[in-house]
Please model this.
Amino acid sequence: MFRRKPENVKNSIIRLPEFSYMKSDDIYLDSSCQSPRPQPVIDSMSEYYKKFNACGGRVKYKWGQKVDSEVEATRELVIDYLGLSQQDYVCSFTLNTTYGINTILSQLPRDKYAQVITSDAEHNSVFLPTIVLAKRLGVNRKLLNRNDYGGLNYDKNDLNRAVIVLNSTSNIDGRLLVNLKQIIKDAHDMGGIVIVDAAQTVAHFHDILKGCGADAICFSAHKMYAASLGVVVIKKDLLKTLIIGLIGGGMVIAVTEQNYTLHPDDLASWLEPGLQAYAEILSLKSAIEWLKTVRPNGQAPPEYLEMLSKKLFDGLSEIPGLEIFNTAPSSVISVYSRKIDAHRLATFLSASGIMVRSGYFCCHYYLLEKLKMPPLLRFSIGLHNTEDDIYQTIEVMKKITKG
Model:
């Protein structure tokens, strides 16, 4: 519909070579859903399938031993990446963030916790499981508010013996849970636990998680440049209190007619029933190694994204009739138009090769029920994006909304 004119676009930063396989006229701005994979990540999966495609934890031949070694190295790398202690935490793999949160909450013991706490601005991955948990435990579920800076508004007494589940970065506007460490300290003082949905945090803002002391951190590798995979980093002390009910092969060392014994020296396996996604796990290792070294435009990833985010935020803010949901620039920016439905805007953008998300982003309670918002249009930036992508998106948005 609106075809791009390259001669009208500034050209200052080229795409990272790790994403050279992407078409030059495709602008992907939906990294909050899943990020493109850099070539080293793709290569790591191909290497597994071509060179040592075997099961882990079950075999003695060299392919399997290679898998075991790489999986364990990935577990250690993840915990180190979060600035946590190998002595206190284990890393388990699952399907995605939602599944990881459910896996923990569904196995928490009864009669240990007095309430369930979450915020009003949560993704359904947190909002829905906490509803189910409160019903199962027979306790009250309390919603607390997040302020404009992303912090949680609370009194310490609110956290008494609570299961607290919160996102550390909003998937609507990128707000960070700036008082995360204080929440964790206060929760522990009051006999509670804190489980963090870090799906939108680990790729670019994981410094907020480093050494935070959360009882569990759940995230999705496919939002941090790896293949589709869920990750649970959990304190050993919490894991040992779970009533393990999701059970299967790879978790036990003994089975009798009516009972079984979980592997005492492999706590991570307690959350991993059945065969694992080995290629995906190895891709996560490659993604973290890449994130630790990549320097787009000679900048650290957060600095590069901040630069792109400000350009996009400023450009969108100047478009008449376009309302910005964000209060500040972020790598996740949501908007709506007074004249054009967000789904139509997304369709028009797609006709120009610009891929964005429209709707409520699985935050139905906060956006639809509480704020009574119309569907939003979301732009989420990744390390594959360039200044050209931003300029082009702004120009097309101007044309669409002007019409």
Notes: The longest strand covers residues 89-94. The CA atoms of residues 184 and 230 lie 23 Å apart. The radius of gyration is 22 Å.
